Amino acid sequence: MKHMRIHPRLLGYLGRALSLELSAVQQYMTQAALAEAWGLPEAARRFREETVEEMRHAERIIQRMLTLGVAPNASQLRPAGVARNLADLLRQDAALEAEITALYQDAAIFCERIGDAGNGAFFEGLLREELEHAQQIDTWLASLTVPHQTDRAYF
């Protein structure tokens, strides 16, 4: 591990990023179980894939922190969102992804301001992936045109 002076604000971005990514893991894992219980195996499969993607992001953040000589610390996980139907789950996911992308955009801008190209590129890479993911969620939500998929309450 390298031991260098790291801007405290950069550490804050990394810590919040880890918290949000692990919160997303928890949320998608919960949603996969809900979708399975509702008899929506394709949705459950997609949520499981999202879980794995977010776990990979969390792992990358942990690796980045370790490379910087910092012990990984997710300070607060958000409660997993539950809802009465698939469309509402996807709306919650869109909100979480918007928060994650805003954080990565802020972090990348901050890194640019302080001349930290390496960490800036790290956040920009995560930002690109999360923007793509947010677009996939929006597309999935828009595709739910069958009334029983969007309106039916499952519990």
From TrEMBL:
Its cofactor is heme b. It catalyses: Fe(2+)(in) = Fe(2+)(out); 4 Fe(2+) + O2 + 4 H(+) = 4 Fe(3+) + 2 H2O. InterPro entries: Bacterioferritin, Ferritin-like, Ferritin-like_diiron, Ferritin-like_SF, Ferritin_DPS_dom. Gene3D superfamilies: 1.20.1260.10. It is an enzyme of class 1 (oxidoreductase). It comes from the Bacteria. Its EC number is 1.16.3.1. Residues 4-148 form the Ferritin-like diiron domain. Keywords: Heme, Iron, Iron storage, Metal-binding. Iron-storage protein, whose ferroxidase center binds Fe(2+), oxidizes it using dioxygen to Fe(3+), and participates in the subsequent Fe(3+) oxide mineral core formation within the central cavity of the BFR protein shell. Belongs to the bacterioferritin family. This is Bacterioferritin. It comes from Thioalkalicoccus limnaeus.
